[in-house]
Amino acid sequence: MMQSLNARVIVVGGGPAGLAAATLSALENIPTLLIAPEAGPDPRTVALMDPSLRLLERLGVWPESLSMISSPLLHLEIIDDMGNLITAPHLMFSADEVGLEAFGWNIPLGPLTVELRAAAERAGVTIISDTVTSAEDLGAVAVVETAGGQRFYGEVLIAADGIESTLRKSAGIAVDRWSFDQHALVTTFKHSGPHRGISTERHRPGGAFTTVPLPGNASSLVWMGTPPVVESLMQRSSRELAMEIQLITRGTLGLISDVMPPKSFPMRGLRARQFAAHRTLLTGETAHAFPPVGAQGLNMSLRDVGHAIDVVLGFDDAGSPAAMADYHDRRSADVTERQAIISAMNTSMLAELLPLDLMRVGALSAISAFPPLRQLVMRQGLAPRKNLPFAMRG
Ligand SMILES: Cc1cc2nc3c(=O)[nH]c(=O)nc-3n(C[C@H](O)[C@H](O)[C@H](O)COP(=O)(O)OP(=O)(O)OC[C@H]3O[C@@H](n4cnc5c(N)ncnc54)[C@H](O)[C@@H]3O)c2cc1C
Asked: What's the confidence (pLDDT) of residue 123?
């Protein structure tokens, strides 16, 4: 006898990817169940580019109240602060060069997650506050089992349960992992001068030091370095950190103050060898993780989400082998290419890799010298040039 379904789509994981997937699915009138424990507070901010904002708009969370606590990214600046003899030229990209008012917005991740969960409820998603312990492809349907002992049956599973995904393991999907021997310190701070909408990525030995505008004279900071360096920074007082930031920013933001308690994140690289199998579509960090250079992570995760729902809408059986193959093809090139570029850029800042550093300098010099290349990089930084999912199209 055919097992009756609890929902056509079952999404697992309540981070931004899972919440966005469940909401988009329900808004397309697909019966959707989300299994997700409540997410805790998160001090990170995320720079989301124009296509991602279009998706958030469709979900009903943007601009709304979030825009009041977020800041537009008018200019993106790259400064070579490696201290080497050969340095890359200073690069400044402006959104109006590609006909945009802003490249994107810097949005606090904690409030974004709260808004997305409220949007999922409004859209009619059935939310189960539990964790999944296992999943199985039963042939015609998939089943997930929760820690609370419940079983739910669906046509297709959308895995959004983070980097150590239970669903990915249950689907038997292998991953490639690599380590960067790097941590990222994340905090926010105030400054006496204006940021003028400029996000600045300073390439420094050990990793990038990136300031991103927040409303008023405030910025968020992602400071990457070797684990001992970041560990020692984590021990400093707010005043001591303000002095360190002051030295690195060299007065461009005025006087630094009010550095909030920082949090550190280990930098990990991961890519799934397949993006879908056994009625399971991988999204967000279940499929790919990499350092926050160039602000690509969640932008790419939201593209996963858009394509996952396109696949569900496009197939009578969204868990069929044909649907799995279609999703894999949609995501494979985008993820692989971006990870390669970001990994190379990030690795070039790690000590004792002079050839890679010269390649970084060469690439940045070429971008600076050739206007068409400059345009291409800006457009590629926003999103792939073709094959955007339905929910991200203008
Ligand atoms: C320092 C830093 C800065 C960043 N800055 C940017 C940026 O500027 N721009 C950008 O685009 N990206 C950025 N990123 C990347 C971005 O933050 C991540 O891509 C994003 O948060 C990942 O979201 P996710 O939903 O895939 O995973 P997660 O946020 O990890 O969510 C996974 C969820 O699944 C739940 N879960 C886990 N196991 C189970 C289970 N068994 N059952 C049910 N639920 C489960 C967890 O509780 C969690 O809520 C940054 C990342 C870092 C580390």
From this structure: 98
Cβ of 183 closer than 6 Å to ligand 1, yes or no, is no
Question: Does some domain include residue 99?
Answer: no
d(CA 262, CA 238): 9
14 Cβ below 6 A of ligand 1: yes
Q: Is 221 in the pocket of ligand 1 (CB under 6 A)?
A: no
Q: Which residues is 134 bridged to in the sheet?
A: 145
Q: CATH no. for residue 339?
A: 3.50.50.60
Residue 354 has what pLDDT? 65
* CB distance 315 to ligand 1 below 6 Å: no
Q: Which long-range contacts (CB under 8 A, 24 or more apart) does 362-368 make?
A: 364/78, 364/80, 364/88, 364/89, 364/91, 365/88, 365/89, 367/91, 368/88, 368/89, 368/91
What's the average pLDDT block by block, 10 residues per block, for the chain (394 residues)?
86 98 98 94 92 96 95 94 82 90 95 97 98 97 98 98 98 93 96 97 92 98 96 98 98 98 94 98 96 86 98 98 98 90 75 67 71 70 80 90
- Ligand 1 pocket: which of 34, 201, 285 to mutate (most atoms within 8 A of CB): 285
Separation of alpha carbons 59 and 179, rounded Å: 35
The pLDDT value recorded for residue 352 is: 61
Q: 158 lies in a domain?
A: yes
Q: Whose CA is nearest to atom 29 of ligand 1?
A: 15
Residue in the structure block whose two tokens are 């007065």: 251
**Alpha carbon 120 to its chain's center:** 19
Please state whether beta strands 276-277 and 280-282 pair in parallel, antiparallel, or not at all (unpaired). Answer: antiparallel
**Is the separation of the CB atoms in 331 and 17 below 8 Å?**
no
Atom of ligand 1 nearest to the CA of 49: 11
185 lines ligand 1 (CB under 6 A): no
Task: Write out the two tokens for 232.
Answer: 């020692």
Q: Which residue has the tokens 């995501």?
A: 331
Q: In total, how many domains does the chain have?
A: 1
Cβ(182) – ligand 1 distance below 6 Å:
no
**Ligand 1 pocket, residue 46 CB under 6 Å:** yes
- Residue 153: inside a domain, yes or no? yes
Domain enclosing residue 295, as ranges: 7-67+107-177+270-356+385-392
- Looking at the domain assignment, is residue 95 inside a domain? no
